[in-house]
Amino acid sequence: MKLLILNGPNLNLLGLREPDIYGKRSYNDLVAYLNDCAKELGTEIEVIQSNHEGVLVDTIQAAYGVFDGIVINPAAYTHTSVAILDALKAVSIPAVEVHLSAVSEREAFRQISYAGMACEKTFAGYGFDGYRMAMEHLVHKLK
To answer: What is the tally of helices (H) and strands (E) in the chain?
Structure first.
């Protein structure tokens, strides 16, 4: 089983960007955590981060026939990108949305998740553990 872990804009600045909201651990810490989770779950992962919407769309499209599931943290594109929504719908790969912060408790504009409309589940507000929860969900579903 192979999962794509896709991270959107500004996640590369974890640890620097608003640590009171996103935590003090770095993006490299997140990638190491994801690799540890994958080993424990017995699955392969590929982790990709981009600040560019088109790269995220291209990556989702290229996932067709390659990955069994997608864990996506679209970051700011959550609330703006119909293109990411459409790409997720087009490939029909089971997807789970993740957010480090509890977006439901934040600004009004963060209440809409376009990408989430194509995801079967969302884990928000659990920090890094939300990724593990998403991976576990997909692994159990796909077995």
So the answer is: 5, 5
The domain that contains 133 carries what CATH number? Answer: 3.40.50.9100
The count of domains in the chain is: 1
CB 88 within 8 A of CB 118: yes
Catalytic residue IDs: 22, 99
* CA proximity to 128, closest of 55, 36, 17, 51: 36
User: How much is the average pLDDT of 89-101?
Assistant: 95
Which structural domain, as residue segments, surrounds residue 105? Answer: 2-142
Strand order in the sheet with 95-99: 44-49, 2-7, 69-73, 95-99, 121-124
Q: Which tokens in the block code for residue 43?
A: 């699955």
Assess whether pLDDT exceeds 70 at residue 118.
yes
